[in-house]
Amino acid sequence: MAIGHFIMAFQNWFFIALLFLIVGNGAFKPNISTQVGNLYKKDDPRRDGAFTIFYMGINLGAFLTNLVCGTLAAVYGWHYGFGAAGVGMVLGLVIYLSGQKYLAADNMMKAKAGEAKETKAAAAKAEEKQPLTSEEWKRVGALVALCALNVVFWAVYEQQGNTMQTWADTKTVWPTVFGWQIPSTWFQSFNPFFIFLLAPLLDMFWMWQKKRDQEPTSVTKMAIGCFLLGGSFIFMIIGNKLIGDAGGAKGSLFWPVACTLILTVGELYLSPIGLSLVTKVSPARIVSMMMGMWFLSSFFGNFLSGVIGALYEGRTLNAQQFFLLLLGLGVATGLAIFAFNRPLRKVIGHH
C-alpha cells in the first residue's frame, strides 16, 4: 500500500498504483481483523468492545489523514497529498512491525496444555482437511445473508464520500479562520472524528446494558445501525428544504455535520459489530475467508453507492427526493435485518 501511494503521486501510473493499493489492502484488512478476533476466547463478551476500540483506532488515522493529505492536496496539489499518504503508510508499517513483540499471543498461537505432542502445523493441516459440517454450513449461509443486506447499508453510508461531499463543496458555507478558509476536504474528517469520540461511550453503554441483561444481540445492533443511518438523512431533507435548490444557494455547515453525527452512531452499531460477529460465528478454519466476504459486501456497496449517487449528480432526482430515497433504503434494510433476527439466532446462537 505504501508503494501504491507513492506511485499515485505520478498521475500517469494511476492504475498501476491502484493495483498495489488493492493487493496490499486485500492482504491487510481481512487478516488484521481476524488477528483482533483471535485475541479472545470463543465466548468472551469483551470481543464486541474490542472491535469497537479497534475501529476507533482505524478512524483516528482516517481523521488525521484528511487533515494532512486533504490540506496538502487542496493547497499544493494532489501529488503532495498522495506522497504524504505513502509516508504515513511507511510509518504504520514500522510501528506494526516494531510493536508486535508487545502484542499478546492470540488463541491460534497458544499451545493447549495436556494436548498430544502433535505440532500445531500438523493439527492445523488435519483440521483443514475436515469438510464443513451441516451446522457450519448453516452459519456460513447466515453470514452470507447478512452480508447481502450489508451491501445496501454501505451503498447509503458511502454517500458521505460521494454526494455528501458534493453537497459540502457546493451547498455549504465553510468558515474562515484568520483569513484562511477551511477547505471542504475537511468534511471527510468529521466521520472519523465522531467515531473515536463516540466509540468508547458506546462501548461503556453496551457494558452497562450487559450488566442489566439488556444488551441487544449483534444482529439487533446491526438493525439499529441501519435505522440510524436512514434517519440521519432527515437532517439533509430539512436542510435542503431551508436552503432550496436554486443555483449558488448555500447553507449552514450544521446540516451535513448533524447528518454525519447520527450516521456515525449507526456505523458503530453495524460495522465493528459485524466484524466481531464474523469472527464469532465463522468456522475457525475459514474465518479469514469469511472476513474477506464481509469486505466483499463493502465492494458491492461502494459500487451501488456510485449507481445511486448518479441519480443525484445526473439530476434524475432532486435533492429532496434523493435524500428521501436514502432514508427509505436505510430504514428498509434495518427492517429486513430485524425480520431475520429470530431465524438467524437459531443458526448462529445468541451472539
How much of the residues is beta strand, in percent?
A: under 5%
Mean pLDDT: 84
The figure for the number of domains is 1
The count of β-strands is 2
CATH class: Mainly Alpha
Give me the Rg, rounded.
22 Å
Second-tier CATH architecture: Up-down Bundle
Distance between the termini: 34 Å
Notes on the structure:
It is a single chain. The longest helix has 29 residues, at 47-75. The chain has a two-stranded antiparallel ribbon. It has a single domain (2-107, 133-173, 184-348), classed as Growth Hormone, Chain: A (Up-down Bundle), CATH 1.20.1250. It is mostly helical and 351 residues long. It has helices at residues 2-8, 14-37, 47-75, 78-99, 120-129, 134-157, 163-170, 190-211, 218-232, 234-243, 254-281, 287-313, 319-339, 341-348, and strands at residues 176-177, 180-181. Mean pLDDT is 84; it is low at 111-119. It contains 14 helices and two strands.
